[in-house]
Design brief:
The chain is built from six helices and seven strands. By secondary structure, it is α/β, with parallel strands linked by helices. Strands 3-2-4-1-5-6-7 form a seven-stranded mixed β-sheet, sandwiched between helices. Helix 1 packs antiparallel against helix 3 and helix 2 crosses helix 3.
């Protein structure tokens, strides 16, 4: 896809120089994914979940996707999980859950989603509202759990060789086994190297 000069400049300044792949290659990965999404969802308010155990990995992936969506002239709203004590009702963060339990409270996330759907969410610091055609990209953990997966139009599952605490690893194993996020995902990426995500093709994707 050919971008306008200003959009190309924006992409170049926002995508990190990894030294492992060219900027063009990095952009192409996310442009391909965004093309897949917009082929199915060309209009309306679209909700996308980026689910993975590595906080920095999911956030970086979501940020790169946001750049690619903006390059296609979509209004993009970002929401991310944060430690519970840091979650702020004045922004679009919601409490991060480090354990996988059946009684977790996702009311703040649901509130963000509801306001995005009805257009009453402030899309940026200027207070401008959400357009009729916009995308909400949410990154966090356990977002493709059964009780949340119906929220999303498109779900991305990120996996890789990451260092987790014993408690976090146990939760991830339980989630993967009981929650079935991999099977529920529309796209799967290996982000062992976060700067060079690799698409993993499965029967359900």
């Amino acid at each position: 896809m050919v971008f306008g000069v200003q959009k190309v400049i924006a992409l170049i300044t926002q995508v990190p120089d990894t030294g492992l792949m060219t900027i063009a290659e990095h952009v192409a990965i996310f442009d391909s994914l965004v093309g897949e999404i917009t082929q199915h969802y060309q209009r309306g308010r679209v909700l996308i979940a980026i689910d993975g155990a590595d906080e920095q990995g999911t956030r970086g992936f979501a940020d790169s996707m946001a750049v690619a969506m903006k390059a296609r002239s979509w209004q993009v709203v970002r929401s991310t999980s944060t430690p519970r004590a840091a979650a702020d009702r004045d922004d679009l963060t919601f409490p991060r859950h480090d354990g996988y339990r059946s009684n977790e409270d996702f009311s703040r996330l649901r509130e963000i989603v509801t306001h995005f759907r009805d257009g009453s969410l402030a899309a940026d610091t200027s207070g401008s509202g959400v357009f009729a055609d916009a995308v909400l990209i949410v990154d966090g953990r356990f977002l493709l759990r059964p009780e949340l997966r119906g929220i999303w139009h498109f779900g991305v599952w990120l996996e890789g060789d990451h260092q987790l605490s014993d408690e976090s690893l146990e939760a991830q194993i339980r989630y993967t086994r009981d929650g079935g996020p991999r099977a529920a995902a529309d796209a799967i990426y290996d982000i062992t190297n976060a700067h060079a995500p690799v698409r993993v093709w499965a029967d359900t994707c």
